[in-house]
Amino acid sequence: LFAIYAGWYHMKRPNLRVITREELAKHAHGAQDGVWVSLLGHVFDVSSSAHLYGPDGYIIFTGQDASRAFATGDFSERGAVEDVTDLPPNDVQTVYTFLQDTYFPKYPQLGFLQGLYFDAAGTPTASWATVLRLVDQAHSEHDEAAELEERYPSCSMRWSAVAGGSRWCDDERVPREILRHPSRPDKTRCGCVPPDEDDHRIMRPYADCPRGNSRCEIPPQDPQAGHHHPPPWPSPPPVVHRMSITGKHAR
Prior knowledge:
Layout: H1 2-12, E1 17-19, H2 21-25, E2 36-39, E3 42-45, H3 67-72, H4 89-106, E4 109-113, H5 126-151, E5 156-160, E6 164-168, E7 174-179, E8 188-193, E9 203-204, E10 215-218
Parallel strand pairs: 1-4
Antiparallel strand pairs: 2-3, 3-4, 5-6, 6-10, 7-8, 7-9
Helix pairs in contact: 4-5
C-alpha cells in the first residue's frame, strides 16, 4: 500500500529525491546554500523565510527532523524528536496539518528524509503508515465527538473554587459525565441526556448528583483534599479506521 503511495508521489513530483540525515544536517540555520527543514520525513527548503528559523525563531527545526516539537511546543534540543507515532491522534493530526496546510503550499519540497518515515528508496515505512492511521483516527474521533455533542448538548454550568456552583440542563434532560469519544476515556464533558437514557459505555451519573435531577450542586473545592479524580472508565474496544493511499482522511 505504501509503496503505491510513494510511486504516486514520485509520479506527481518526479524531481524529489532521498536525502540523508548527514546532508540535511549541513543545511541548518546559517547555511549559505539553503536552510532545510524536515517534517514527518518530508524535506523542504525554507530559505525564503530564513529569518523565521534563526536563534529567535524556529532554529530547532533546521537541519534535522524535529516533528514532535510541532505538537509538544518543546523547542529545546531535548524536544527535537523525530518520532510522533506514540502521541495521541489529535497531536499527530496537528503535526500533519502543519505539513499539509503550511509547508506544502509555502515551501518547495526537495525530497524525503531517509530514516523513520521513508527508507533509502524513498518508500514509506511502517512509521509513516502509523502517522496516516493516527491522522485518520483523529478525523474520525472529531466527527464522532461532534455527533455526540449534537445528540447530548453541553450542560449549563456556574462554579468557583470558593463558592462552588451548579450544573443544569433544560428541556427535562439531566446532567451526565460523557466521554468526548468512546476511545478517549481521559476526555469527558458534562452533557444533557434524556432521563431514561443510560448508555454505560459513554456516560455515567455524577457522584454528587441524584440520578433524576436536572440541576446538581457542585461543592466548592476543598484545598486540603486536592483535586478529586473520578474512577477510570473501562477500557474501550479497539477502533478500526480506514486510511487512504494519499494520506487524506478516507470518508
